[in-house]
Design brief:
- The two termini are about 45 Å apart.
- Strands 1-9-8-7-2-3-6 form a seven-stranded mixed beta sheet, with helices on both faces. Strands 4-5 form a two-stranded antiparallel ribbon.
- By secondary structure, the protein is α+β, with helices and mostly antiparallel strands.
- About 45% of the residues lie in helices and about 20% in strands.
- Strand 2, helix 2 and strand 3 form a beta-alpha-beta unit.
- Helix 4 runs antiparallel to helix 5.
Length: about 260
């Protein structure tokens, strides 16, 4: 994964606010936006969500450093990853049978205890103590099915993305040998404009920091940049966060 292209026509910007025009052109995208940025700010993720809602195709590459909102439980990551639950109908039917059995065993035990207490009151015979045996047996049978109900899995989960995005695992978070950190910042708009430079897709990067960026509409350069983006997005062997395992950490997964 590497690209070299010489002689591209481009304009250059250095200083604070280097992302102003970038944000304007992203907001005015007509067809698609492709972004590589290792760091993201919440309100800019929100901007991508809004663009997607308008029918703009979004492809995003980032690292496992996604920031998130904390106030009002407005979790951007929960807007990018959706949980879907399916029900095992056979297990659900079995669960109903077990629930009915547990309830019936309770009623039977209550009746037996009441009957035993009444007989003991009438006859005051210690031989009636053996009447506890069937009550205990039913108690343990009921407890057995209660435990089975707690362990029974009825619901299964899978996760989907709002729009296609890749989250590569940073070297310091990886359990596998990996020395590559996706530190590049590339922004492609409608496959006609590309930005590259130092600024991340963050509030500070686009507005406050002293940054550098180039902007090009050079067709040959764009072909190279898009080719490199696609190679990283579709063919990279770098470790990435699995959407299913990630989703299971974001959402509760009650099994019954």
């Amino acid at each position: 994964m590497s690209t070299y292209y010489n002689g591209a026509n481009c304009d250059i910007y250095i200083g604070k606010g280097a992302g102003k025009k970038l944000l304007e052109e992203i907001s005015n995208a007509k067809k698609n936006v492709k972004i590589i940025s290792p760091y993201l700010s919440p309100f800019l993720i929100k901007e991508l969500i809004n663009l997607y809602a308008k029918g703009i195709q979004i492809h995003l590459i980032t690292s496992d450093n996604i920031e998130d909102y904390h106030e009002f439980n407005d979790k951007n990551i929960h807007q990018l990853i959706f949980q879907h639950m399916t029900t095992d109908e056979e297990e659900y039917t079995l669960r109903i049978k077990w629930q009915n059995l547990v309830a019936n065993l309770l009623y039977i035990n209550i009746f037996l205890i009441s009957a035993l207490a009444f007989l003991f009151y009438l006859y005051n015979s210690y031989q009636l103590i053996y009447g506890i045996v069937p009550i205990l047996i039913l108690f343990f049978i009921r407890n057995h099915y209660q435990q089975k109900l707690k362990r029974q899995q009825i619901y299964f989960y899978h996760y989907t993305q709002l729009f296609p995005f890749k989250v590569f695992i940073s070297p310091y978070n990886s359990d596998t040998p990996n020395n590559t950190f996706i530190h590049s910042k590339i922004y492609i708009i409608d496959d006609q404009i590309a930005y590259m430079g130092s600024l991340n897709f963050t509030s500070s990067g686009t507005k406050d920091n002293y940054e550098t960026r180039i902007r090009t509409t050079d067709k040959n350069a764009l072909l190279k940049i898009i080719e490199e983006f696609n190679e990283l997005f579709y063919n990279s062997k770098l470790p990435e966060k699995d959407i299913q395992s990630w989703g299971s950490k974001l959402y509760p997964e009650p099994i019954n």
